[in-house]
Write a structure and sequence with these properties.
Elements lengths: L3 H14 L4 H8 L4 H8 L5 H14 L10 H6 L7 E3 L4 H10 L7 E3 L12 H10 L7 E4 L2 H9 L3 E5 L13 E3 L5 E6 L2 E7 L1
Parallel strand pairs: 1-2, 3-4, 4-5
Antiparallel strand pairs: 6-7
Helix pairs in contact: 1-2, 2-3, 3-4, 4-6
């Protein structure tokens, strides 16, 4: 799902309403748990209360959230149980966005609510690998934010950067970068995912 416009808009509204420099907020908000962003830019506020308000606003903002072309087809090409979602969003936001896009909720869905340390700490992706029953070095992560790329690398995983929230040149730490799901292909044999190739 591409929710960059919604995320950006809601953070800006939130910042303006609280008299906080919105550019400062947006500069650190993508790919990082909202709770940590709030604590960084507004330590004087009740972070949990602010998170609930922001979460409600994001869930209600569906107008500019869209399925990325080829995403449903790419996910469908991977055997069930061999992929998961690891997101800095809350469970409420992640599940509503996935349903909005027509995705079946994956067996493994790791959200901001499930970890003590958000990206760029490796905990989110290591939790995802564990729940998939996979070794970290056997996992491939598709990430659209620098914090997520660092998180996956810190966990010992390879990363394909996805240029959507950030441009290709802003994702130099990724092992490869693509702009569309059509640039990715999955190799499956006997219901086992063998590899994902970036064109």
């Amino acid at each position: 799902m591409n929710s960059t416009g919604s995320v950006d808009r809601q953070w800006r509204v939130w910042a303006r309403q609280r008299g906080i420099d919105e550019e400062k907020v947006v500069a650190i908000a993508h790919g990082v748990r909202a709770l940590e962003v709030i604590r960084a830019v507004a330590p004087q506020l009740d972070a949990n209360a602010e998170l609930r308000a922001l979460e409600a606003a994001e869930v209600g903002d569906e107008a500019s959230v869209a399925v990325m072309p080829g995403a449903l087809e790419f996910v469908a090409s991977i055997p069930a149980g061999r992929w998961g979602v690891v997101t800095s969003g809350t469970h409420r936001i992640a599940s509503s966005r996935l349903r909005l896009g027509g995705f079946t909720l994956p067996r493994v869905l790791v959200t901001a609510d499930d970890v003590a340390n958000g990206k760029p700490h490796p905990e989110p992706y290591l939790t995802g690998a564990k729940l998939l029953g996979a070794k970290p070095e056997d996992c491939l992560v598709i990430e659209d934010a620098p914090a997520g790329i660092r998180s996956a690398h810190a966990g010992g995983m390879k990363v394909v950067g996805f240029a959507s929230t950030y441009r290709k040149d802003q994702l130099p730490e990724a092992d490869a970068v693509v702009s569309e799901f059509r640039d990715l292909s999955a190799t499956v044999e006997q219901n086992m995912l063998l590899s994902v190739t970036a064109k």
